[in-house]
Amino acid sequence: MPLHVSIATRAFRRYSTYTAATLAGIFTNCVFGVIVCFVYTAVWDQSPRAGGYDVQDALTYAWLGQAMIMTVAVWGGGSPDDLAERIRSGDVALDFYRPVGILGWYVAADLGRATFHLLTRGIAPTIVGALLFDLRWPSGPITWLAVAASIPLAVLVSFSLRFLVAASGFWILDSQGTKVLAASAAVFFSGLTVPLVLFPGWLQDVAVLLPWATFLQVPADIWLGQRSGLEVLAGLGLQLFWAVALLAGCALVLRTAERKVVVQGG
Amino acid sequence: MAELLLTPLVRYCEIAALWVRASTTYRASFWMLTVGGFLITGVDFVGIWILFHTVHSLGGFSLREVAFLYGGTGLAIAIADLFVGRIERLGSMIRLGRLDTMMVRPVPLLIQVCADEFALRRIARVVQALVVFGWASAYVDWSPGRVAMAASMVVSGSVIFFALFIAFACLQFWTADSAEVANAFTYGGNTLTSYPLTVFPGEVVKALTFVLPLAFVNWYPSLYILGRPDPLGFPAWTQVLSPVVALAMAGIAALVWRTGVRHYRSTGS
Fold first, then answer.
1. Which residues from chain B sit within 8 angstroms of residue A207, using beta carbons?
2. For residue A147, what pLDDT is reported?
């Protein structure tokens, strides 16, 4: 365990080196947050209870979305990108020899990265949003606790999906294409484009059960108090289910890949 | 004079052709990247379509009118992104010392930077914007003047985004890892202009007219094409100003690029 903690710490430090990039990213998140808020204001002015949200919920959702983009790496990235590069170059063969499990290593590194992004690109835009607009806050310590449990679960689900995408490189060498396809699914089905609660009929029924719903919609609904009591547990349960199922999938794929790996030139 | 302008363009096409051949080597990946490029901007429009399930108009504009605005700005940024989008990576070219290599080659530096890793798959975004624009255009009451305005809108809009890509990428001459600031203005500007500007406060529209003239990408020309009076009461001639603004922006971008290149002193390591 201390090994994995130090992997996570180093991943955290690695990302914290690029101060200008972090500040630039926060600025961009804030610009998008403001744009989305004006659009949502126009929508909820006309339809004040759209999707069961009031305008304050909608504006808060807009900023939570900006906060989660980098934390759960909706567009892809994080430690699975390193794996993709090592698969392409063939270095991954060495990873299989190491006395440390590959999956645990990359999970730890990505949790370190996510912690850094949550503390910077998650919290900073949320504060800016709160200064500019009237946002809703979790109603009490239990809600805060549920939010705190929900975010790492979201990261784990997103990590597993990104890991599976990177692992597709074992079979097709260049995983860039799979990454872009996965990113467009993630951006849409996470509720980043528009909240899933606005999706029409059956599309919503399906979307709220997909793994991407755990990225933003579930944590946001807990934060906003849209889920209360048992519904909070149901939300966390959905996240836990996808995290366990997809991580098991990752382990399975790794075992299959291990048999298949050929060192380039050998 | 003609040669002065033509030679760099020919060089650009040569470098671009090289990269196109390279990228089609991984066939499966090329097609997935192309389809992905189509989807990733496509979902933005699906998002707008979903919003219209809840409301009948946005800022006083119907879905088809918003689609026209979305298609107009989408085409402009997609064309700009296809040809000069790679300039975003200026910082990494500086870091890896590749910019120094380019400087000693007998092709204009800006041409090399923009043509570097030219990605034909980015044409998917052009097609995606064109589909939405085409659908919205079917409902426009066309006249010769409006057709001319639409052509001028796409060309001027692209030039404005060309200029934004180049000018903001030049920041990386000073701070190599600040690439994302540019995104706020390029992609942020694209998102902003995808909606009727009536959605935003008047101050924002004024800023987009006088400070960062993104409103000229699609908003003013579209008001003319859709036959709508200016909500802020600007005179009608602002609607024909886009080409002038585009030229001015291109001039500013060229100046910023020159200043950046003169300031550049290599990485020093």
1. none
2. 97
The residues that bridge with B61 in the sheet, in sequence order, are B58
pTM confidence score:
0.92
Residue A82 has pLDDT above 60, yes or no: yes
Q: Do B32 and A178 touch (CB under 8 A)?
A: yes
- Across the interface, whether the CB atoms of B58 and A173 are under 8 A apart is answered no
Chain A residues close to B58, C-beta within 8 Å: 39, 42-43
Give yes or no for residue A265 having a pLDDT over 60. Answer: no
**A38 touches B at CB < 8 Å:** yes
Q: How is residue A214 annotated by DSSP? A: G
Q: In sequence order, which residues have a C-beta less than 8 Å from that of residue A44 and are 6 or more positions away?
A: A50, A53, A54, A55, A58
Question: Given an 8 Å threshold on Cβ–Cβ distance, is A43 in contact with B58?
Answer: yes
- This model of the complex carries an ipTM of 0.90
CA angle B48, B51, B53 (to 5 degrees): 120
Tokens of A92: 């991954």
Kindly tell me if the per-residue pLDDT of B252 is higher than 70.
yes
Average of per-residue pLDDT across B86-99: 88
Q: Which amino acid is at B128?
A: Q
Distances in whole angstroms, Cα of residue B67 to Cα of each of B55, B156, B218, B220, B251: 15, 19, 12, 15, 31
Q: Which residues of B touch A193 (CB under 8 A)?
A: 43-44, 46-47, 50
At A262, the pLDDT band (50, 70, 90 cuts) reads low
pLDDT band at B30 (very low <50, low <70, confident <90, very high): confident
